[in-house]
Each structure stands twice: as structure tokens, then as C-alpha cells.
Amino acid sequence: MTQTSIPIDPVTRLSNTNKFLGYATIAAISVYLVWCGLCSLPMCFGPLAVAVGLLLYACELISGIQSIANYLGQIRPLTLEKPEIPDSWYPDVDIMIATHDEEVNLIYNTVNACRYLIYPDKSKVHVHLCDDGNRPEMRELAERLGVNYIDMPEPKHAKAGNMNNALRQTNGELVAFLDADMIPRREFLMELVPYFFLPRVKKNDDGKWVERKPEEIDPNYKIGFVQTPQNFYNPDLFQYSLYAEDRVPGEQMYFFRELNVARNGINAPLLCGSNMMISREALEAVGYFSTGNITEDHETGIKIQTAGYTCFALPVCIANGLNPPAVVNLIIQRERWGRGCMQ
């Protein structure tokens, strides 16, 4: 079977001028952080002032280090190429679609798209509609479309609990996760699965991918997850309000196609909850999704990286969803993200 491939725009390749500006910015941040630490703390104004000053400096230090890491990642990006693997290597894949109270029509689009994904052996693709709302209409939809319906008799731990419940009832080697509104493109699986075989293959002198000999395989090199952008087919609130859908990129594209990809170089891309594929072995190693945090995906990704797995973020968009339709929805979403990251 011929593997499909979507060109990846070289968004992280900078010109010499931009590289110079990047290094200059890193130098300026470093000088500022040193100055703040040595000269700006209010040491003569009592313990309260010192405590508040140290707290402020800690925040600036963390922000500065993160900025430096992001700049270095964009100046010296990690070159990542999708390997070519035999059709027989493609494993069983579980596709988890999480739903709670979304409309049937919205879920239909996502589930129906999953039925037409390209894969060498379609019998190895298992689509699961994971409903912690236990709704009869969702069960009926799953039966009508021929996918597996997984309910939760006693819903708990929100989305993390829903996904953990589904994981304990399935056994695919790889697991893909989609939010209810995220419609995957036909190439979704073919673009993600090969990266999990990077430890087993290499490029020979002819530029062809070949299997490594057993003694060449590093047992500590294992792929934990691959994250792709959360792309949207409706304009975000900023594009809509400024009448700039055709002139201004989506608000989240800078993070997904620049910042998160830049973090590949330090094995620190963020797991973002949808449009992603995770090794079941990695999930089992960390006890599935974290349930003590409202941004369970972010914490779970950190645990997977801490467990020794190598993880990647790709800039290629292979699924499309819906932006928050109103300001109140946007505020609720960002409040949850902020609280979760602080936790």
C-alpha cells in the first residue's frame, strides 16, 4: 500500500536575520534576568517586600527560561522525518471519541469521518464512541454507524475518567484521541502511526528506510505520543470580529505550529487532548490519564516524558474542529486551561 504524505511547511526554519534577532533576544532576556536577581530585589524594605519581590522574580525567571527554550527550538529546530514502514507493521489502533453533552449531528460528523480513514488493514482500526453521559441517542448512533459504544455507569473524573474507562475495555497497541467536534482527515492514521516505529528503522546510504539490526536498537528509545495541531474550520473570535479570516491566521496556530514544534528539541511538547496518538504502553506506564487535574492531557504528557518516552509535536494539520462560538465559551475554556496549568 502506498503511504500518503502531507507536506510539512518549514515553519521553524528561520532566515539568518531572524536567527540573529533570536540570539539577540536570548541575550537580552539573560541580561535582564541577571539584573533582576542582583539589583532589583527590595532587600531594604522588610520581609514582606522581599517575599513579594522573590515571588515576582520567580515568575519572571520561569517565563524567561521558557522563552529562551522556545527561541532556541525555533533557531535550531529538530529535523523530524516520517519513516516508511511495511504494511504488516501497522498495529491495531483504537480511536477514542469523547462526548458528554454534544449534539448528535456534531458527533455524527466525527464518527462518520473515522469510518473512512485510510489504513492498510481496516480490521485493525477500532472506533469507540465514549459517552459519559450515557445517552440512548448516542448508543443508537454508534449502532447505526457500526462503531463501539462505551458508556459509564457511574461517570466521574470528567474527560479523564471517560478515557480511562474506555482504555480499560480496549487493547489496541496505539490509541488516537479526538474531541467530539474534531473531524479527522483520511490521512490521519497514516500520518501518525509510522513515527512510533522510529526506534526500529533508519535511513541507509541510499536514502531508503530499512529495519535496524537487533543490536542497533536502543531499548531506552521509545515513542510516547505524537501531537498534531488543533485546527479549526470556523473563524476564531478574533478573526471574526476583525473581519480578517483570510488575512490573519488562527489564534492557536502560532502555538501549535511554532512553539509546540520547537519544544521537540528538548522533548517537551505539550499533550493537548485531541488530534493526538499515544502508545498504550506509555499510558499504562503512567497509570492512564491523570485525574487530579482539570487539564489531564497536559499533566499526563509530562508524566509520559518523565517516564523516559520521546514525544513529538507535528505542524501538519490532519483534523479540523470548531472554535468556541461565543466570548463566554472562550473565557470558560481559557480559565480551565489556566487553572489546570497552575495545578
How does this model look, in words?
The chain contains eleven helices and twelve strands. By secondary structure, the protein is of the alpha/beta class. The protein has a seven-stranded mixed sheet, with helices on both faces. Strands 5-12-9 form a three-stranded mixed sheet. Strand 2, helix 4 (136-145) and strand 3 form a beta-alpha-beta unit. The longest helix has 30 residues, at 46-75. The termini are far apart. The model is unreliable at 2-12 (pLDDT under 50).
Secondary-structure map:
Blueprint: H1 16-39, H2 46-75, E1 93-99, H3 104-114, E2 125-131, H4 136-145, E3 148-151, H5 158-167, E4 174-179, E5 183-184, H6 188-192, E6 201-203, E7 209-211, E8 223-227, E9 231-232, H7 237-241, H8 253-262, E10 276-279, H9 280-285, H10 296-306, E11 310-313, E12 319-321, H11 327-342
Parallel strand pairs: 1-2, 1-4, 2-3, 8-11, 9-12
Antiparallel strand pairs: 4-10, 5-12, 6-7, 8-10
Helix pairs in contact: 1-2, 2-8, 3-4
